[in-house]
Amino acid sequence: MRRNQVVVALAAILATSLLHAQQTVPEVPGLPQAAHAAAASIDSEKIRAHVRFLSLDLLEGRGPGTRGDSLAAEYIATQFALDGLEPAGDNGTWFQRVPLLAVHTIEDKTKFSFVPATGQPVDLAYGTEIVSKDQTGQPIADFDAPIVFVGYGIHAPEYKWDDYAGVDIKGKIALMIANEPPSDDPVFFKGKALTYYGRWTYKYEEAARRGAVGVLLIHRTDLASYGWEVVRNSQAIEKSYLQEDPLSKLRAAAWIQHDVAQRLLTLAGLGDLDKTIDAAGKTFHAVELPVRLKAHIESHVRRYDSTNVLGRVPGASTENHAVLYTGHYDHLGIDPDAKGDGIYNGAADNGTGCGILLELARAFGQSTVRPPHAVYFASVTAEEQGLLGSQYLGLHPPVPASQITLDLNYDMVLPIGIPRSANLNGAERLDFWPTIQAVARDFDLALAPDPMPSAGHYYRSDHFSLARVGIPAMPVAEGTLFEGRDEAWGRDQAVDFVKHHYHQPSDEYRPDWDFRGNAKLARFGFVLGWLASAQPKSVEWVPGDEFEAARKASEAH
User: Fold this and answer.
1) Residue 552: its H or E element
2) Angle between helices 433-442 and 516-534 (to 10 degrees)
3) Quick one: CA torsion of 6, 8, 11, 15, rounded to 10 degrees?
4) Taking a C-beta distance cutoff of 8 angstroms, is the pair 444, 420 a contact?
5) Do the domains spanning 26-87+314-556 and 103-301 agree at the CATH topology level?
6) What is the pLDDT at residue 530?
7) Regions of the chain where pLDDT drops below 70
8) How far, CA to CA in Å, does 534 sit from each of 79, 379, 435?
9) Using CA atoms, how far apart are residues 116 and 123, in angstroms rounded to an integer?
10) Collapsed DSSP state (helix, strand, coil) of residue 291
């Protein structure tokens, strides 16, 4: 090939590359050209490199409080520094200390029994009939307390619902039903969509606020959305809590089998459990049972620290109207009893979210113009232990919660191609929703509805920890429609990952993964964050949302 032909060919290749780069970030109204260029610089191969490193066996599954946890945190902090961010952790460092408490119930030394007013006690078999954790962190707990049936255990003034009306549960055991009152009415507990009132975490917290000694949560598979084995397996292992968490103070945070609950109601003379559950979803009055719960609980307890990693890009304005990006870096560590590979590498969950977070930090940090207001990046710990790192961040944000306009969270973004749909579960709860819809159209992203609204996915990732303190927050994830594929293929990929790799040692980095979709969702999030920062007023919850009160409370302070 002659020299001029080579030049023409190279020019054509360069022109094609530039055209592709321009197409990666559409022209969005209100987005400065420099910000457009910064977003366009987001590189799928840089995300790949971060995911590959964070999921190496060297990091031993990134279990909180372990050597691998420290290695991951130091790597993320180093990347923040290289990208020109400022540290935003404790005392001018990159790190926010998260003090944790780990509890493991000793099954063969733990005893529970129902003690009726008349007749013999009924012993419960630990594991098959009841599981429990002592949230207080004491190695031994003994109590003998009356049981009060409180229906669904919900106090929701906005729905004119109060299962605790007329009853005092201080020093007592609260017996309650999983989930929330059934509804097809979107203005009553949001119809078929699960609200936070239906989550077991809320039920424990509300009972603790009211001074209960413990909770007996009645399991029924259709109400819990998973079988008893899921409950048992989650309680058979060590469970962590934030130290000094005012909402984790139950001596017995327990589940009981459906048949065990029926036995309890029979002892109390209340009849059929399923009929009682049906009635409790319509009208309910709490009742103290003529039965007590007697317990001896022994636990292995350890206290340890992990860290959130926080960085900051200063804004052009000194006014605090900050945007926050989050993604957890922890995973499940090592299973010492595994036969074969026992390292839970967590490549997709959540190496991908970390890779996206780091590439967003680089794009903001190296932008030729500053964002309108400060942008914070928080790679949080102990998500797999119950959103604990983000819970601590919500309680101790780098600036007051009222000064954070939006949190965008990335968690387990499968690197399987370029998405043409996105799952932004909960985004419609924000007054920023019209802007989100417009930018999604610009990015050729159809906004997919929550495929399982009854499962309450909004409450199961780190954005929820920020929402509960009032910060407008949402996840950014792929949908099921990808370029060159139909939706059935996308659904099959998601189902296959959950079945064969989710929370398993096989969630490992694969060289054939396609990270272009991760980059597209990073660019999409970059633009949303910039536009949110540029708004003349803060993003807010739509009127009547369950988090609106927390937002108003934060603004009042």
Assistant:
1) helix 548-556
2) 140
3) -140
4) yes
5) no
6) 98
7) 1-23
8) 26, 24, 12
9) 11
10) strand
Q: Which two tokens stand for residue 225?
A: 């959305």
**Three-state DSSP class for residue 182:** coil
3-class SS of residue 209: helix
Please tell me the predicted confidence (pLDDT) of residue 354: 98
Q: What does the alpha-carbon distance between residue 88 and residue 94 come to, in Å, rounded to a whole number? A: 6
**What residues have CB less than 8 Å from 310, skipping those under 6 apart?**
87, 88, 89, 94, 95, 96, 376, 377, 378, 393, 398
CATH architecture, domain defined by 103-301:
3-Layer(bba) Sandwich (3.50)
Give the single-character DSSP code of 347: I
pLDDT number for residue 339: 87
Looking up tokens 């029979």 gives: 266
Smallest CA-to-CA distance from 528 within 474, 478, 467 is with: 474
- Assign domain 26-87+314-556 to a CATH class: alpha beta
First to last CA, the chain: 72
Spatial separation of the C-alpha atoms in residues 478 and 446, rounded to whole Å: 10
Say what the pLDDT of residue 15 is: 37
Domain ranges of the chain: 26-87+314-556, 103-301
Q: Which residues pair with 423 in a beta bridge?
A: 477
pLDDT given for residue 491 in this prediction: 95
Alpha-carbon distances, residue 257 vs 133, 229, 264 (angstroms):
16, 10, 11
Length of the chain: 557
